[in-house]
Amino acid sequence: MNLYFITSLFLVFLALISLIFGNYLIFNNLSIFLEYKFYGVNSADLVMVLLFDWKSTIFMSTVMFISSMVILYSSSYMSGDLNKIRFLLLVVLFVLSMILMIISPNLISILLGWDGLGLISYCLVIFYQNVKSYNAGMLTILSNRVGDAAILLSIAWMLNYGGWNFYFYLDYMDKDKLMIFIGSLVILAGMTKSAQIPFSAWLPAAMAAPTPVSALVHSSTLVTAGVYLLIRFSPLLVNTNLFKILMLTGALTMFISGLGANFEYDLKKIIALSTLSQLGLMMCILGAGFSNLAFFHLLAHAFFKSMLFLCAGILIHSFGDMQDIRFMGNSVKFMPLTCSIFNIANLALCGLPFLTGFYSKDLILEVNLLTNLNILSFFLCYLSTGLTVCYSVRIFYWSFISEFNFLTLINLHDEDWLMIMGMIFLFILSILGGAMLIWLMMPVMMTIYLPLPLKLLVLAVIMAGGILGVMVNYFYMLMSFRVQLKFLSFLGGIWFMPYLATYGVNSSTLKLGLGFKKILDLGWTEELLAMNVTNNLNKLMNFFQVTHMNNLKIYLLIFVSWIFLVFMILI
């Protein structure tokens, strides 16, 4: 526990230093490059470059602060686990990989951080060692390997420019066809890491990890790495067809995940699908060309999403590791503090005015009204915002208002001060973080002039989503179990995407492997190698055994044969 506490304090200290440094850079309009050269081959130098500008330092500060709160929370959450130190080391390595990726304007050092995130996330997903965790971990790492391969290819193509520091080439190479090809590979990498369609299946599956890891992964580390990389590459790709495709993909991801969360009963998977929905919103506004707005929502979303997962961890602990929201009714009477914090985080997620989520979501949706956005993306963005409120109301109803459905002899209570302390700081940022960020990132007020009906459209969508959430709960309970199961398997399963991403990809490969096994391992290979060698060895063993067991007779036979041979030679 002392080690957890010391690590948490150290990360808070680093987060404060990074925040002060970021403020200094943003107010003086500075960017700092630190470069160290390892060696050069012809015109290509292998250098380690670190970029410190306001984006990297503010994001680094957010990552370190959230990870410090998660580690403080974990000191109590993981106290009964046998592998506490392993867990802490993995989380620290995870944060270091993310920081390396944040401050790198060089594709090779980005790959180190990127691969570190993928590998350590696999170790964390399989932390609880069972079949479900292994399957989820394998799906996670194989999905992310697609993005790793895309970055490796882009590294190979970047060699044509004489170096891998993409940041130096973005402004004057944006019309070069080769750079557009590199940009398309980077978009593919960003889509896999941020779980956009069709790579969405791994994100809900990764919920097999411990809850503190989910809080870290879904707020500021693994899934945000893809968005952050595309924000860095946005000067290259803005106003291209690639970003238009990304915008539509983001809107579709947002819609499908929002719809799926309304038909899911696993608490952690609902919050995971809400993360997917918010990532879709970031990708949508990034594709429209507003990278600073996407970055603003990235930071704002990190505060309340990490808090949602920490509250969910306390609920799951109290209910004896039960994650089904249908068992969690009326818990507000037993756990008032946790439920209050959970609901504030939910309201921030919905975009309730003057909470953290409002400042970024409202601005994004109003900017959408001003841009040349096609009607499909516009409709999906606003409908998905309504669906966010819809599933938030659903969680609120099933977890806190409905009848108590669990065992009567159960000890429900708010957890100890370590867990609560980790949540309180994030709770404050979920209320004040949006205002602080908008003052910091936009010192000149961004005024958007719209007609009154369009100004009120966002609030109308939020209200309509809340009403729809109440109606969905009511009508869903009236359905038969068979109809509910159909809805759950199709919409709750993100439109059969997990089946397509696992069985659809794996089944043909596994069948081919089985065929080879039958033909080779159990067929000719076995006959010619294994069985043949075994039979010959058996014959030799039998021969030597006979020799050994009949040693006197053999000795006399050899003696007579020797006498006979000597006699023949002498004659």
From TrEMBL:
Which EC numbers characterise this protein's activity in its record?
Answer: 7.1.1.2
Keywords, A to Z? Electron transport, Membrane, Mitochondrion, Mitochondrion inner membrane, NAD, Respiratory chain, Translocase, Transmembrane, Transmembrane helix, Transport, Ubiquinone
- Location of the protein in the cell: Mitochondrion inner membrane
Q: What class of enzyme is it?
A: translocase
GO CC term (a single one): mitochondrial inner membrane
The NADH dehydrogenase subunit 5 C-terminal domain is annotated at 391-569
Q: Give the UniProt family note.
A: Belongs to the complex I subunit 5 family.
The UniProt function text for this chain reads: Core subunit of the mitochondrial membrane respiratory chain NADH dehydrogenase (Complex I) that is believed to belong to the minimal assembly required for catalysis. Complex I functions in the transfer of electrons from NADH to the respiratory chain. The immediate electron acceptor for the enzyme is believed to be ubiquinone. Core subunit of the mitochondrial membrane respiratory chain NADH dehydrogenase (Complex I) which catalyzes electron transfer from NADH through the respiratory chain, using ubiquinone as an electron acceptor. Essential for the catalytic activity and assembly of complex I.
Q: What is this protein called?
A: NADH-ubiquinone oxidoreductase chain 5
Q: What is the lineage of its organism?
A: Eukaryota, Metazoa, Ecdysozoa, Arthropoda, Hexapoda
